[in-house]
Amino acid sequence: MAAELKDDQDLAPQVVTEAPVIELDGLSVKFGGRPILQSLRGQLRGRSIGLLGPNGAGKTTLIHTLLGFHAPSAGTARIFGQDITADTKEIRSIIGYMPERDAFIGKMSCVHFVRLMAELSGLPTDAALERAHEALFYVGLGEARYRKVDTYSLGMKQLAKLAQALVHGPKLIFLDEPTNGLDPPARARMIRLIREIRDSGQARILISSHLLRDVEECCEEILILKDGRIATYCNLEEERRLNRKFLMLETRGDQAAFTKAIGELGCEYAVTGDSRVKLVLHEGIEVRDLYRVAAEQKLQIRRLNFKRDSLEDIFLKAMENGHGGL
Amino acid sequence: MAVYEHTYKQYAGPLTPEWSRFLIIPRHAFRDVFKSKLFTAFFVLCFTPVLAEAIFIYLHHNTQALGILQVRINNLIPIDASFFEFWTHFQAAFAGLVTVLVGPPLVARDLTNNGLPLYLCRPFSRAEYVFGKMCVVLILLSAITWVPGLLMFFFQAYLEGFNWLGSNIWIASAIFLSSLLWILTLALLSQTVSAWVKWRLAASAALIGLYFIPAAFAEIVNAMFLTRWGHILSIGGVRYNLTQGLFGTFVRDAGRVTWEDSSEIILREPALWCSWLALFLLCAICLALLSRKVKAYEIVR
């Protein structure tokens, strides 16, 4: 849906003009003959993209395939124009990855661990050490950086994982369930960091999460997977803007005459209760026309709300619609 | 991403050459290895045979010292291929012990803590990872096997003269190759065990077991079937034969068994190519096992 929207409609110029971050070109992945990802196609362009889907939808497999951990069974994908199968090393050098599960190197202090990760990404020893300190201060582990990672709390381990994903200054960061197991203050901190990175414009972010609220707070675009297929890909702000055409009215008076009149006006409507009407405004019809019709029908409009789809609405719609595709 | 700025910034500085990045693993691993004073002491102890070898070579060329010790030069064993082969076997035993101490946690620790995705999501391949881990063992073992072996060889050459060096240079290659074969086998074996047995003590026990159990089985086979072909089943036996082959001291006829009716059975060691084949098979199995385990994620089918 979104790809068509992008072509046809009024998206923010930045979104339209920038080169795609990730291009999915019929990407399919099978494990032991079982399809996990099926012919994914599309171009992801946002500064921060939320990857949503129910358990087993293929979110983590998609991230792993983009990282080159799994070979595609058909099709391919490109990251910043580079093919994931042919240019794996080049791609990995510009990506930072924060895995979902606990992941660290045992018996190492956090600064040592992050420095090792920086060196493996190609930074010289001195620069790696300097950036390891900086990254740990940035994520808020500055004071605890000489402690062994094994001794960290879950929240601290999440931050350490984020630090190792950022330390080499990647252009694209994959965050797999970044707020898993965090208490509210730690979650808020993680969200703030992600938004800061996004707003810095220095790196694009792909976040896989079950928590719709987190994605809603951090992401501009969302890709919803269902059964290994793309169910929805849309720009959240654009989707909300489109939904400004949906109205919810609460009325007092002769509703039948009013609904008949707005139907003749060209609005689609549904009566949802004794006094409630849900309607869609079509091109050329303004809200003041509704008030005019209501006055003619001697009906009071007691309340008028633009209905904004929450991410949850979009997600549930995608789950109901099945395979939407791009 | 300066500390004082608290902002995210990309890195725009120079990068290290890709080919050299596998060396990052041993550099960081050595910090951990030498944190243990016990291991450091043991590692130093590994050099005592080298010291003894150096003293022996020195005495061989110092008549004054021999006079003081009242030893006649004819009573000393000659410094030839057999002499260097003896020390190679000696150091090989130390190499085995060092491997048992250092090898087991190397891959196991990363697997236990899910560290592999962190290595492999970077421009760092599985082969580089395995080679980097092997280098931890290889560098340590090199320091106690072929490096001092060659130093002793050149020390002897220095004291003996250029003619001796010219006619015995092949011994240097034998020292190097036999040690290299052994330490490569140990490194590969230890990484394989480390990848499959995550508990350190069990992995160390498995390494020891892999050396001694087949050796015991080989001796049982030899005794039961009156043969020496059992040696092909033993890592130590294969190593011994190959080392002898490289030093030119290998003989297939290992002994004779005489029956009461005076008939004889000649006990023959397996041909050298069989030992090479056994070593090749062992390494191939290790690599296959490693490639199954060293992955960013295991796919559950």
List strands and helices in order, with pairings.
The complex is a heterodimer of chains A (326) and B (301).
Chain A: H1 2-8, H2 13-17, E1 22-31, E2 34-44, E3 48-52, H3 59-66, E4 74-79, E5 82-83, H4 88-93, E6 95-98, H5 110-120, H6 125-139, H7 154-166, E7 172-176, H8 184-200, E8 204-208, H9 212-218, E9 221-226, E10 229-235, H10 236-242, E11 246-252, H11 255-265, E12 268-271, E13 276-280, H12 287-296, E14 300-306, H13 311-321
Helix pairs in contact in A: 5-6, 5-7, 6-7
Chain B: H1 24-33, H2 37-45, H3 48-60, H4 63-69, H5 81-102, H6 105-112, H7 116-120, H8 126-144, H9 146-160, H10 162-196, H11 200-225, H12 235-247, E1 253-258, E2 264-268, H13 272-293
Antiparallel strand pairs in B: 1-2
Care to describe what's here?
With 326 residues, chain A is α/β, with parallel strands linked by helices. Chain A has 13 helices and 14 strands. Chain A has a 6-stranded mixed beta sheet, with helices on both faces. Residues 1-16 of chain A have low confidence and may be disordered. Chain B has one domain (18-293). Chain B has 13 helices and 2 strands; from the N terminus they run ααααααααααααββα. In chain B, strand 1 (253-258) and strand 2 form a beta hairpin. In chain B, helix 5 (81-102) packs across helix 8, helix 10 (162-196) runs antiparallel to helix 12 and helix 10 packs across helix 13 (272-293). The two termini of chain B are 42 Å apart. The mean pLDDT of chain B is 91.
Give the gist of this structure:
The complex is a heterodimer of chains A (326) and B (301). With 326 residues, chain A is of the alpha/beta class.
Supply the key terms:
heterodimer, A: 326 residues, alpha/beta, Rossmann fold, Alpha-Beta Plaits, four-stranded antiparallel β-sheet, 13 helices, 39% helix, 26% strand, disordered N terminus, B: 301 residues, mainly alpha, two-stranded antiparallel sheet, 68% helix, globular
